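CO-FOLDING WORKSHEET

Operator: S.A.
Ligand of interest: zinc ion
Run index: 95
Mode: holo prediction, single chain
Checklist:
[x] sequence pasted
[x] SMILES validated
[ ] output reviewed
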Amino acid sequence: MSTPHEIRSDASTRVLTLRWTDGREQQIPHAKLRRACACSECRRIRLDGLVVQAAPDVTLVDVHLMGYGAQLIFSDGHARGIYPWRYLEQIVEAG
Ligand SMILES: [Zn+2]
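OUTPUT RECEIVED:
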């Protein structure tokens, strides 16, 4: 499993940058991360065919490393989502 060796969140551009051990660098907008939240509540919303609401100016305020992934804390107070590294890779690949 690939893991990022550097994680950088930029509050001004609202972009999370992940540098993977194989040299790839990926950038994910904070609002996109929020819409893709991995918590059970947000998964249910998407399973129901709905879209998780995220303000365009939502920002990522903290990242808690969990070993297999990261818990992402957002400026709207949502902090339940733990994003496995593989899931973060898929968010990027999904465009
Ligand atoms: Zn969520």
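REVIEW:
The chain has one domain: 4-93.
The mean pLDDT is 93.
[x] output reviewed
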